[in-house]
Amino acid sequence: MTATLPILSILVFFPLAGGLLMLALADERQARVAALAVAGAEFLLSLPLWYWFDAHDVGLQFVEQADWIPSFGISWLVGIDGLSLLLVLLTTLIVPICVLAMWDDVRVRVRQFLFCLLWLETGIIGVFISLDLFLFYVFWELMLIPMYLLIGVWGNPARRIYAAVKFFIYTMAGSLLMLVAILVLYFQHGQATGTYTFDLLSLYGTPLTRNTQLWLFAAFAVAFAIKVPVWPLHTWLPDAHTEAPTVGSVVLAAVLLKMGIYGFLRFALPLFPQGAAAAAPLMATLAIIGIIYGALVCMVQPDLKRLIAFSSVSHLGFVMLGIFAFNLQGLQGSLIQMINHGLSTGALFLIVGMIYERRHTRLIADFGGLARVMPVFATAFMVVALSSIGLPGLNGFVGEFLILLGAFQARPLYGVLAATGVVLAAAYMLWMFQRVMFGEVTHEENRSLPDLSLREGAVLLPLIALIVWIGVYPASFLGKSEASATHYLSELSAAMAAPPVTVPAAEAACPPEAAPPAAVAPGEGAPAQAAPAEAPLPTEAVPAEAPQPPAAPAEDKPAPKAPKHRGRHAQPQPQPEPAAPEQVQPAPAPAAGEGQGASPSAPVSAPVSAPGAAQDGGQEVNHVR
Length: 625
Hints:
- By secondary structure, this protein is mainly alpha-helical.
- The protein has one domain (7-495).
- It has helices at residues 7-23, 28-52, 85-101, 110-129, 133-142, 144-154, 160-193, 200-203, 210-227, 236-243, 246-256, 258-271, 273-298, 304-323, 328-359, 370-373, 375-388, 395-410, 412-437, 454-472, 475-497, 505-508, 541-545, and strands at residues 61-69, 74-80, 501-503, 619-621.
- A two-stranded antiparallel ribbon has the order 1-2. The protein has a two-stranded antiparallel sheet with strand order 3-4.
- The two termini are 20 Å apart.
């Protein structure tokens, strides 16, 4: 579905524009009202995505495309499908809740704080809708600056600089690795096809050797694993959560961490399917270690906020395990569990922030018996805590059940080990709740604590309503992603199971259907014309014109078939005419598209969006369509 109204572009730039206008206001109360109006309007603008989205269409929808830097193959290309729809909506929901939550909490540089929050929303939504790798990287880095400022300027004065710098260094180190991999992929695609582009849908068709896929997948995986975070790259997260202001922790847990998981789904797996298949056992193992390790560490935490931070490591380990199970139950469970984690953990951080504002301490030992003093607060806390441990009837149960089902199907041992995380989660969460809420009031300061205010109730009410809604009727959310997830797995499985292809080494750098890569400047975008039939090149001239010296007998490789775009916006790329047969060797030149592998056994009923494969004879490559 190609968008007639540029709704995605509006959703990206509206918060940033509103934030800039809000900075011009002198009164801080007016700035709060303006920021709440901007964030609320953004959420209302995103609701048509829910109603207009066609759940049966496996292609990209609301697609917008415009040239940005055409000389380098960079374009404004955005769109969503069932993998990204719910994440965009979660982002637009969380930000107005955060603005309302910080109403009385932030008292220093209020306008700047609100601007950073709206700026962060622009970056996060941009990541979830980008279909151009350069554009994706810009938004990926764009969200880094406001989050760094939220932690470093408005965090806990004792260790906020340490936590902000640690967050920045970890994220930037992974981002640089990913940038190198993006550039390698860009030039590999240009040399193979004659078209230099950052268009993700075209890059899905880049022919890569197995070793190249492994290295590029590793670079992408490290960047995304830091963001999730996956054990042992998680050490920045507890510090960032603990030292950040309450609203910073909510945004970080609810949506920022999901960018890493989404990166695996949208980029790392379909771009490098053979690399992903080879790394799947390692990734599943790290996910299970994270599940168990995070839960065990939670049991010994004396600080409420740090306990919830480590619980994120455990819960997101379930999400990663579901993705690398490579089946529908696991993937659907991961998609819904991302939303569940955003709602439940976001609500837990809000609740801890409410306690902190009353007592200015987060130590579990400083509480006890709060249920007698704050009964409404205790009720809300109980619902959110039970959802976090996966009680049937609440949202957490749906995601964890599907993920464990998928893990058992992939490998029973994975399911058995991961299930221990559910037991441990119940242990640390219920034990924490008992120590904070039940028993005698042992500290006099706790006897006069006020219960939830109307504003705080308005903050928690939408989150609790969604927690119950997903738990009671998950089909309304799972149905939005089922068709996309099914098609995604079908294409991914076909690429992983495809036999390796062989191509002659001499033609690997200079396909006969396109001019040599050296003759094409990066970003020119159009394939070079083939040699005319009246003047065929002699066989001896091919090695001399190739950019690399021949390391094997000079044989011809067919140029890869132009990749198909997934989604309806795509325009067919011009096909170069086949080269005329050489006169020295009478064998006819291969027809365009020769060497493409047979279709996988699983039927594909929609345009190709993820990997395909091809076959010929010589050096291994993987054709991803």
